[in-house]
Amino acid sequence: MKVLVLGAGVIGTTSAYFLAKQGHDVTVIDRQESVAMEASHANAGCLSYGFTSPLASPGLPFNILKWALSGRSPLVVNPNMSIETIKFMYRLYKNCNSKSYEVNKSRMLRIANYSQKALLQIEADFDINYVQRKQGSLQLFWDSKEIDKAKKDISILEKFNIKSELLDPEGCLKIEPGLRYVKNQIAGGIQFTDDFTGNCYLFSNEIYKKCLEMGVNFEFKTEINAIETHNNAVSAVLTSKGEFKADCYSVSLGSHSNNILSQIGIQTPIYPVKGYSITLPVLADKDAPQSTIMDERNKIAITRLGDTIRVAGIAHLTDFNKELRAKSLESLKQGIDRLFPNSYEQTNDLNFWTGFRPSTPDSTPIIGPTPYSNLYLNTGHGTLGWTMSAGSGKLLANLISGSEPEISLEGIDMSRYSFANRTPQNYG
Ligand SMILES: Cc1cc2nc3c(=O)[nH]c(=O)nc-3n(C[C@H](O)[C@H](O)[C@H](O)COP(=O)(O)OP(=O)(O)OC[C@H]3O[C@@H](n4cnc5c(N)ncnc54)[C@H](O)[C@@H]3O)c2cc1C
User: Which residue numbers delimit the FAD dependent oxidoreductase domain (predicted)?
Assistant: First the structure.
């Protein structure tokens, strides 16, 4: 079958890989010059199979107040809020209760768990190097209250056979010796032993090269303007390079998915939650992080990627404003200095970067069919798109091929949103 994949981020690229593997004739369209140039470019680098949590949690509203008072909030909201921002915050708030948290977390874990298997399958398929490490990740706590809160999550994790280990400060130092400067300040941590780390940009490029070998066609520097429909099906995609036609279409346009989908009546609740990262050269291995450390209080992730350290975080609700915010740079620098003060070379080039996490209010991506018979979605992966990419790509390919999905679609496809129960005819 001829399949057109819209978007060449990590989601579109892995979709193309699994579709090509299943024998389809695949073309990928993207406006950028190569793969993974937007949200997938310089993310935190954690493959958080165990440490998978929704943004909306019962404690979030209280935390927002607490952060606002402390003047060091990892969640920043622009004072001139747009309607889209208000809608996202309201929908997020509706998910801030124990029941939704557990449901959302279970759905995310279902995809994350499957994604780990799919990623290992990719690694078995061909020799792929994305400076990957398989040393687990460490969720770090500064006081016992934070530990007690995290313990509640362990029962959900056990349901999914996610391995985790509670560590005292000494235990944290054993796996991350560079933390010795804060040994007396930290309360402990949870190690997710099955988490991996790696560079998402490198991964996407390696998959891209393999896709080329498998005959996938990439159309870069091509702006997608609209989707044309006829008789409840997509008939063409209109781009800056003309019309593209296929038997089947998949949308993985990240935060921009709604711009195109809303034109044909599909309203996905995806909001661009802006985040930032810096990437620094390692100075001394003994002082540097070995894997991912998630500073739970400050919501900053620090990851070792080859001979560099990536520091990422901040959730900034400011629509599609691409400005590199000086205060966010400061927070990230403080994040690394607080935990690994002697780990990186002093440099003027911090590789300060920003990207938009394509976020749904329930933090679960939207994968599966739409009311249009030949249109599929693989989008809305939020804070964990890199983690969920391989499983999402494989799930999508199985659905398009008509094979039985290997995990349930319950709560993953767009039918979980009430507005999705409309048919193309009444989209008006
Ligand atoms: C600071 C930060 C840290 C993160 N850390 C992690 C992490 O540690 N682990 C993790 O799992 N995830 C992490 N994420 C999330 C992860 O990076 C995203 O979920 C993931 O990259 C989304 O991939 P995507 O392919 O859906 O979107 P994108 O990578 O944004 O890809 C969408 C593509 O669509 C193209 N496009 C859009 N509109 C058009 C158009 N009209 N015409 C043509 N092309 C178009 C874009 O050019 C782009 O290439 C982080 C994100 C951020 C911002």
Answer: 2-399
